[in-house]
Specification:
Elements (H helix, E strand, L loop, with lengths): L19 E2 L5 H13 L7 H9 L5 E5 L2 E9 L3 E8 L6 H18 L3 E7 L3 H9 L3 E12 L2 E11 L4
Parallel strand pairs: 4-5
Antiparallel strand pairs: 1-2, 2-3, 3-4, 5-7, 6-7
Helix pairs in contact: 1-2
Length: 165
Amino acid sequence: MEIIETLPVASPPEPQPALRVLEISSLEQISDIMTRYEALNIPKEAAAQFFQTLTQDRGAWFLEHPAGLVYFTNVIPRVGALLHVLFWDGKLTKARALEVRAAVQLATKRFDLARVSAQFKWSNRAYLKFLRTAGFVYEGTLRKGWIESNGFEDMLLYGIISEEL
């Protein structure tokens, strides 16, 4: 009987997320981000509110992705934060969900967060699937918690705790 020695197969290295801390260095950069934001055809906060968050909110932390932004608001160190995801092309792929998970891990480590939450309107089923892929779990529903121009819609709450990352 011939014995064949097998070598362990190395698993491929984990892909590094294409994220970096957003450092605003010019008014043109802000203008470019705002132009892209306003062109998005997705449910989103008013442009004026986003502009304030982008430029003035010290409880916010932004990561830049080649195709958009991943950012956290209501950041309370050692407690939690609220996740926001914007991809300029609107694509919510599995690879991007894994990058968002890596961003959540980075924020959790940087601010010693116990949890990260996400809120979105009930009808945004693509975002629901995206968050589940990133490891978020359903935590509840706020009835009539999302305000639209034509009325109210239920808002879903999803979250992830540091032990799940």
